[in-house]
Amino acid sequence: MSYRLGVDVGGTFTDVLLVDEETGSTWRAKTASTPSDQSVGVLHGIDKVCAEAGIDRSAVAHVLHGTTVATNAILEGKGATVGLVTTQGFRQVLQIARSFVPGGLAGWIIWPKPEPLAALENTVEVPERIGSDGTVIRPLDEDAVRSELRKLRENGVEALAVSLINAFANDAHERRIAEIAAEELPGIEISLSSVVLPEMREYERALTTVANGYVQPQVARYVANLRTKLADEGVPAELSILRSDGGLSSAGAAIAAPVTMLLSGPAGGVTGAVWVAEQSGHTELLTFDMGGTSTDVALVQSAQARIGRETKVGDLTVRASAVDVRTVGAGGGSIAHVPGLTRALRVGPQSAGAEPGPAAYGKGGDAPTVTDANVVLGYLPAALAGGEITLDRAAARAAVQTVADAMGLASVEQAAAGIIDIVNENMLGGLRLVSVQQGFDPRDFALVAFGGAGPLHANALGRLTGAWPVIVPPSPGVLCALGDATTSARDESARTVLRKLGDLSAEELAAVFRDLSESASARLAAQGVAAEKIAYSADVRFVGQGNELPVTFDLDDGPAGLAAKFDAEHERLFSFNLTVDHELVNARATVTGAKPTVTPIHLEKGDGDPASARTGTTPVYVDGGFVDAALYDRLKLRAGDVIPGPAIVTEMDSTTLILPGHAATTDPSGSLLIRPTAEEA
């Protein structure tokens, strides 16, 4: 009997889910993250869940891991010193960049332009030139290449990125530079733009290639360290890493292309949310993952997460397929503060993290956080994470009292309620980014709330967005780990085409995409995975436009069908279409392996009365005063049980708050479906 294990490392907690590969049975565990060495928390979580399942570590055959190592390297500026090789005349490609300044009309006055990931002194140019059609206009000067690489070696570069003009059309010069670099810079990680992003637009291609090199050494060290520790601790498992687009790649593939895993952590949550929501019959979703440090939100249509062509991490935007997740600096550990000049309450983005954590954790933290506010309002039980963390209510009150004093409020409860209101509004802003700003009405979607803190705020976010029902999955605190364990291996091939759709026959169009799917399938097969599903997408624009839109389609649609789908998307986003021809810019094929078997939960049918799960009452502060809320043990709920608010439902890894005027129905699949009652509606 073998097992697969999903692991998600967050800023505060590490979540682990164990799956029996024969029966699909699952076990869950949650433990504190260890930022100084994430593998320590991972191994602690593995021990905990294996003990829960009564198995030995050696039975774990696959470890499927969502990680923020690459993300943190970007956010903290702790990546490698990267050397960049460009075509002669393009040395300042990263410095020139794009003429985009965030913020309002005066944003250029106050916006500090971020420093390029490859410094100008570590950027060299070599004599060569390839035309946009792939013809060699100027041969590569290999002597000059060696001379420039030696300069980079003297500068102490730790990784090398090679991005030549039009390398997407002909990669011969880049491949030759890589061969020379292996001689001149032995042991250095090398990223080629023709491999990382074989598409047009020299700046985006260079930036993405440099970002790949920037995080590559750190990712390689982390993956190698985790592999070694797993083996040393008796876990002879195959290690796979979650990609930003929600698929899996082997550890070796992740090291080779770490830019594809910048949103590895959030993607697992979206995958898990889709799987759980489908069990209760919902496929149009807004996902809401609130952890200890941040909140990630996404939109799902027809049980398919929206995949974007850009990955954004801090000020960095690279061209890599990723689930369209937006992150808000709002989590259970977000710190509340009152600036002295305005006396206006602010929450986040600073976080207490896992160390020292909120004041209520009793680890030395004294800053008022969202978790402390929830403790003051009576929303949280005495212990979290299955008893691993005992809450210090007095410390929480003392921390939140500093906010009440700074604002001149009469009670600590008023300050706590203000903290919760503001953090809810911050998260509402994130949900509007993936819905209203993209042309979608949130009232047309269900809201799936998970993460350790998500279910506490879910009911309030449903009330703010009008998205019903609010779905709280079983074990919501470890749903990201469920996503890691229930996803499939995936690979992608892309190519710039630049052809008018009117000039392409259906056979020519299909040939382009079949060639790409064969390349991706071959790489997947090299990882020991057979292709089961192939999806096609294209970047299309009207002839003469400067930007394109990604469109998914079937090969049977042909050029006319692809144009029609682009028109529909363009109309939805911009409310108009042009009468000119369409142009196919980039073509992509995504190949996915088989999904693993996981047995859904099937609860015993009840009579609608949750009395057998009721464990008592507790006072909670709601709408300006204290009321008695019923307490329920989630593990004792039956299918069809209806829980009227105010109520609190507790479980090992999370706590769900049901507000007055709302009720939660227990779905047979184990999810809680919260809706307004008739009076509230």
TrEMBL record:
Residues 506-665 form the Acetophenone carboxylase-like C-terminal domain. It comes from the Bacteria. Residues 205-488 form the Hydantoinase A/oxoprolinase domain. This is Hydantoinase/oxoprolinase family protein. InterPro entries: ACX-like_C, ATPase_NBD, Hydant_A_N, Hydantoinase_A, Oxoprolinase-like. Residues 4-184 form the Hydantoinase/oxoprolinase N-terminal domain. The lineage of its organism: Bacteria, Bacillati, Actinomycetota, Actinomycetes, Micromonosporales. SUPFAM superfamilies: Actin-like ATPase domain.
